[in-house]
From TrEMBL:
Organism of origin: Mesobacillus boroniphilus
Record GO terms (molecular function): ATP binding; ATP hydrolysis activity
Domain ABC transporter, first and last residues per copy: 5-236
Protein name: ABC transporter ATP-binding protein
InterPro entries: AAA+_ATPase (IPR003593), ABC_SmlMolc_Importer (IPR050093), ABC_transporter-like_ATP-bd (IPR003439), ABC_transporter-like_CS (IPR017871), P-loop_NTPase (IPR027417)
Presence of keyword Calcium: no
Pfam family, one: ABC_tran
PANTHER family xref list: SPERMIDINE/PUTRESCINE IMPORT ATP-BINDING PROTEIN POTA, SPERMIDINE_PUTRESCINE IMPORT ATP-BINDING PROTEIN POTA
Keywords carried by this UniProt record: ATP-binding, Nucleotide-binding, Transport
Length: 243
């Protein structure tokens, strides 16, 4: 079976500094991949490169065996959706925020209405449809952000620490909801987080990124219970903080 995404000899640089160096990596269709590492490890750069938001200095990214590294067409970009830590919502209603991507794709008005209504319901924010985004709480804004991504029905959903600014009860409920939604839609997901609780709950596979390099990858519980020599100090330090 061809992996959904394959990375070969990928490098991202800023001036002379190497931000990311990944010789080979694969993401399978339907996989929920967690990415963890210290500050400055290259986690956000990794997501930006995979979602074609950042062009690598060298190397290739393949989608179902097709090299898409320099294929920046709308057709390819639309296979991905990204939800960042800060929702960056438009100064309009919740409905219009979720609808914007569909409108840019020139979907018929009724289709837009039906799809937005569906995802408003899935994220339990139907009652907020007419509310101005500027007046939302942090948890509400993140639900709108995630609905705006999922309404596009992406092949790959990229999440860059979307829960980190939320209080604990809000985070727990949203984690439950997004996990059930990912399972329902079977959406391949790449999830960057610094929170072991989030990663253990959501990610079936865990990759540890340090100094721009993937130091260990495998089933989440296996990586956390049996860290290798490169990742042991980092993982054990995190475990000691939550125990």
């Amino acid at each position: 079976m061809i992996p959904l995404i394959t990375v070969k000899e990928l490098e991202v640089t800023a001036g002379k500094k190497k931000l990311l160096s990944i010789p080979h990596f694969e993401i399978q269709e339907g996989e929920v991949l967690g990415v963890m590492g210290p500050n400055g490890a290259g986690k956000s750069t990794f997501i930006k490169a995979l979602s074609l938001l950042e062009r690598p200095a060298q190397g290739s990214i393949f989608l179902k065996g097709q090299d898409i590294t320099v294929d920046l067409t709308l057709e390819i970009r639309r296979k991905f959706a990204v939800a960042m830590q800060q929702p960056l919502l438009l100064d309009t209603t919740v409905f219009q925020n979720i609808a914007i991507g569909l409108k840019l794709r020139n979907l018929p008005r009724q289709d837009v209405k039906n799809k937005v209504a569906y995802w408003l319901d899935k994220f339990q924010i139907s009652h907020l449809a007419k509310k101005q985004a500027a007046h939302l709480s942090g948890g509400e804004a993140q639900r709108v952000n995630l609905a705006r991504a999922m309404v596009l029905e992406p092949e790959v959903l990229f999440l860059d620490e979307p829960f980190s600014a939320l209080d604990f009860p809000t985070k727990v409920q949203l984690l439950k909801d997004i996990k059930s939604i990912i399972a329902l839609t079977k959406t391949t997901t790449v999830f960057v987080s610094h929170d072991l609780m989030e990663l253990k709950y959501l990610a079936g596979t865990l990759a540890i990124l340090m100094d721009g390099e993937l130091k260990q990858t495998g089933p989440t519980e296996e990586v956390l219970s049996s860290p290798n020599t490169s990742t042991a100090t980092f993982i054990n330090d995190w475990k000691s903080l939550i125990n």
